[in-house]
User: Fold this.
Amino acid sequence: MKLFPDSTLSFDENVQNSEGILPLLLGRNEICQLVISDLTRIRSLLVVGGENTSRSKFLQTLILSTILKTKPDALQLILIGSDVQSFSAFRGCRHLSQSIETDPKAAIETLTSVIAEMERRYQLLSDLGVSHIDEYNLQLANLSRGSVDKVRKPLPRVLIAIDELENLMEVDRGMTEKFADIMNHHASSTGLYLVLATQYAECSVVTGIIKAVFSSKIAFKLNERKDSLWILDQSGAEKLSADREMLFLSPEVTS
Assistant:
């Protein structure tokens, strides 16, 4: 699906009226209809676009669309970028669970801690005999009604957004691939979701493992046809306008 990112969208109105739990305002389609996806349904998203595209700005737009509808006690952010300007718009945001991470080596440690948190959450769910974060929070609310549970607390959802994937691949390719695979196949039931972005479409960055685990992908303009074929399994991204168009592939789309 070809989409047109729209910076003039009214976020408050469109996000609040959307049915999604974590709505992602993607833009408008070719007949000017608003296209909204839901991160809780697609679980994870890969965004690829060159240096002169709107990739980074679009990534910030996605994050903004999730936090406008969700309070900090229900959604936390873990943001990993390449430099001090990465995600600078969110510095001081109450949804942040930690400082914005710009050191690739420290970022790898963050990935490890996220996996540990997923495992902790699985144990919490198991202790209550449930298999999903929504069931856990609902049952906990029922158990706590009329009393104060000082031990168990509701679990917030967590969005992990990573810009410049290539930096993490350079430091620890194996761990980065493992993290992407775990997040896509095992983490969503515990309320953990991943948005991963890079400016490089090469197979040395978006490896076969990275490509395979993402069923939802966005491509801005790519340099060559072979890049589009690698990322999307179809040509077309090489023909896009650099700052006004993108291609979105996903099994779950609402509009």
Notes: DSSP finds eight helices and nine strands in the chain. The mean pLDDT is 88.
